[in-house]
Design a protein that fits this description.
Length: 375
Amino acid sequence: MDNIQMVDLKRQYQKIKTDVDAAIQNVINSAAFIGGPDVAQLSTELAEYLGVKHVIPCANGTDALQIALMALDLQPGDEVITPSFTYIATVEVVALLRLTPVFVDVDEDTFTMNIESVRKAITPKTKAIIPVHLYGQSVDMEPLLTLANEHNIPVIEDNAQAIGGKYTFSDGHVAKTGSMGAIGCTSFFPSKNLGGYGDGGAIFTNDAELAVKLKMIANHGQKVKYYHEMVGCNSRLDTIQAAILRVKLRQLDGYCDARRSAADYYDAAFKNHPNIITPFRAPYSTHVFHQYTLRLIGIDRDMVHKKLADRNIPSMIYYPVPSHKQAMLKEYGTENNYLPVTDMLNKEVISLPMHTELTKEELSFITTNLLEIIG
């Protein structure tokens, strides 16, 4: 058995090598490295997959969030509600634009934005809400959208970790994560469920006017070349990345199935262990397991992390310091915010290897060793 990887992109590549190599070579042959036809084709195919009207590719997921906020014409000091239990990019763009992050707690089961916490956080200054579909699990979007609509607050979905997931509304209507808010954002970082071979991102919307604005902002604020109507940025998805992503988009549902299969194996191995809480699978959505994240109860999590490494089993802690306690946000005075679930999870969570190529031999080795370490 080869060394186990947290994410094994080499083996995944071998299965699609012929198609990927041909796609890359076609771009090189065309020399259309920026804005080539694959970029427009990816936009069309991704829009069809997600069930949205407009997809605007960009350079990375962080840019996608920044451009989304810029398109809403928010002013310095406007409040943006976001969970603290998320990768820092979600909050970083809020601070970068001189907006005010308002942190809310997450659910103990799903690790995603707690709706009642959001309700209590809304003020007249609240101008946007950013739910994060964390680890592959959707936020409970129906009550969140109802609450946001009551207050006329736009919702920007951070879908970097859950592309391919589905959410079912109470009337039976099914929507893909990233397609339900005013704007959806994703990352194509290589380790994502739909990842390129470099950086990349995309923005989704059903609003035609917003789509025009988002596209302009991502392209130096211009609709016509050299005529700049607003302050924008330079955020492009390279044609080579778009070509690769078109190949991988056709595999995405299968990739999600493979991740769920690995999660099923983990679930069965850890079932009923008194010190392990396996990932919750909400009845309103499909979990696409960008990460397989356990809670370890009454156990030294950092000790487990180290001992797994000693046995050549990678694991990760997402995230050891919550956003509201990060030094970069000190000026907002949020380090003493009362977010009990967030603070608890930061001490308990650990993520095990999760990718599309995990074998039963590898899963058996991981689970057997973890159970031995925990006892």
